[in-house]
Specification:
By secondary structure, this protein is an alpha/beta fold. The structure holds ligand C2E and magnesium ion (2 copies).
């Protein structure tokens, strides 16, 4: 993009023009465009409209010398919407104009600038995908936009940007923009980075996500989902004290799809609500069935994803399902991930309070992955800590892991919480956890997740199998040792 042809947006008579960027025939094409001229440029911000950006981009790519690489940056001002509500229309328009100014001041004179909707900005500029300086420049452009003045004081806007490169990622101008949007989407939920470069994997993933989303909707209607159950075992007495309900999806053509693949897709759509409804209903019905067979488990645990917990009517949903399928509230434990507690402590605390007020227990899942401190834990007042599998794997062979688990267990005890070790696979790990004093364990060593009818057999056989793990055989099914006592 070194030639004269690639100039863009010169000030002429106080108005932005496309002159210089396009070949004369393309300028004529634009001039002949039926859109009135005033609509071709986004006037308050003085940038190209989406349509005109596409036209100019296509032309730019067509006329670029063979060795010239171009970066397309899609910048979402994630928090601009909130600025509109804070500043009103006029104030926000001024802010947007200021952002456009900032953008113009940090890009090369011959870069192409555009705006889509209220809060997305586009930049096309010479940059090479595998050149570190190019990447740093792009990061610099995005970083320049975050500090902005609001009412005289500096505020930080939340920005999510995606970059795609021509011709490395694609030669098509449409795909270049689409890929940059894909990468920007990624940046909006990968909180650790505000600029993400497109990777072909993302295109495959979005196609797969879309397929899963469509199929999941049908799958819920067509009964393709099942709940499996995995026991949690008291590490002192060996009793099976709880079952965690885990969802399984067997699609007629796609085969088994893992929860770690479909749950995040469901979370980004409305489907997660239906999934939680289905899970809770199925698990409660199953708990009642076991009770009817004389196999009452002290606890049935159901996972609630962050998207569920964030719903304003989450607790109402729990309450209404429990009214429909009555069980002792203390028999239900909802597992919510540590990342939610970490990201939205207030909300987490409110939900724990609401759930406990109706007698439901709360467990913090995958604990240890987000460094929630003791002081925060103390305030959250939940019931159970589940130590993440990554600390359990090989715990018997690592002094560091032992020390970490010991700290978590001690912290739990201090706060009168139960600690559950997830993902125990080996006898050595079990032994180490017992010595540390962890109260409950779960993992393939005892039992993989299995369908309900197999779990019924497990419950019957477990009192005789448990001596294989060093527990004294128990004659009756459930002694109550105070841990996990039902209400
Ligand atoms: P999670 O809630 O932490 O569940 C524990 C995961 O570890 C389960 O994987 C379980 O099968 C697996 N696991 C248990 N013991 C072992 C072991 O010894 N070794 C290993 N390697 N893995 C073990 P799964 O069922 O694939 O679920 C993965 C995650 O997906 C869950 O993590 C949970 O976050 C989510 N998930 C699963 N089912 C549901 C559901 O019904 N609703 C929601 N919202 N999330 C679910
Ligand atoms: Mg869980
Ligand atoms: Mg977990």
């Amino acid at each position: 993009m070194t030639g004269k042809e690639t100039h863009l947006l010169r000030e002429a008579d106080g108005e932005e023009t496309l002159e210089g960027l396009l070949r004369p025939d393309a300028v004529e094409e634009l001039a002949a465009d039926s859109q009135p001229r005033s609509q071709r440029l986004d006037h308050p911000a003085g940038l190209l409209t989406h349509h005109n950006f596409q036209v100019a981009l296509a032309e730019l790519l067509r006329s670029s010398p063979a060795e010239q690489e171009v970066a397309l940056i899609w910048i979402d001002l994630v928090s601009l919407r909130r600025e509109y509500s804070l500043l009103g229309w006029k104030g926000a328009a001024a802010l947007a104009a200021h952002i456009a100014e900032t953008l113009r001041s940090v890009v090369d004179a011959n870069a192409l600038l555009g705006r889509v909707g209220e809060s997305s900005f586009l930049v096309a500029m010479a940059a090479s995908k595998f050149n570190k300086i190019s990447r740093l420049r792009i990061q610099g452009i995005v970083d320049a936009l975050t500090p902005q003045l609001r009412g005289g004081s500096e505020t930080r806007l939340e920005v999510a940007a995606g970059v795609a490169f021509f011709p490395s990622d694609t030669r098509s101008p449409e795909d270049l923009v689409r890929f940059a949007v894909l990468a920007a989407d990624r940046a909006s939920y990968v909180k650790s980075r505000n600029v993400v470069a497109f990777h072909t994997r993302m295109n495959r993933e979005i196609m797969r996500d879309h397929l899963l989303e469509v199929e999941m909707g049908k799958g819920l209607e067509r009964n393709q989902f099942r709940m499996f159950y995995q026991p949690k075992v008291n590490l002192i007495t060996g009793e099976a004290v709880a079952a965690e309900a885990l969802m399984r999806w067997n699609h007629p053509e796609l085969g088994a799809v893992a929860p770690c693949e479909f749950i995040p897709v469901a979370e980004r759509s409305d489907l997660i609500k239906g999934i939680f409804d289905f899970n809770l209903r199925t698990a409660l019905e199953q708990a009642r069935r076991w009770r009817g067979l004389g196999l009452a488990l002290p606890i049935i645990a159901v996972n609630a994803s962050a998207a569920n917990v964030r719903e304003a009517d989450f607790v109402r949903t729990v309450r209404s399902i429990m009214a429909e399928i009555p069980i002792a509230p203390m028999q239900l434990e909802l597992e919510m991930t540590e990342s939610l507690a970490f990201e939205d402590e207030e909300l987490f605390r409110a939900r724990v309070r609401q759930l406990r007020s109706i007698g439901v227990r709360v467990a913090i899942d995958d604990f240890g992955t987000r460094y929630t401190g003791f002081n925060v834990l103390k305030k959250l007042r939940f019931d159970t800590i589940k130590i993440d599998q990554c600390f359990i794997r090989g715990v018997d062979r690592s002094q560091d892991m032992i020390a970490l688990c010991r700290t978590i267990v001690a912290m739990g005890r201090q706060l009168k919480l139960r600690t559950v070790a997830e993902g125990i696979e080996e006898l050595g790990e079990l032994e180490a956890l017992r010595q540390i004093g962890c109260e409950v364990g779960q993992g393939h060593l005892f039992q993989r997740p299995i369908p309900a009818d197999e779990f019924t057999v497990f419950l019957r056989e477990w009192p005789h199998r448990m001596r294989d793990f060093g527990f004294a055989e128990s004659g009756s099914l459930f002694h109550n040792h105070g841990l996990y006592a039902v209400g």
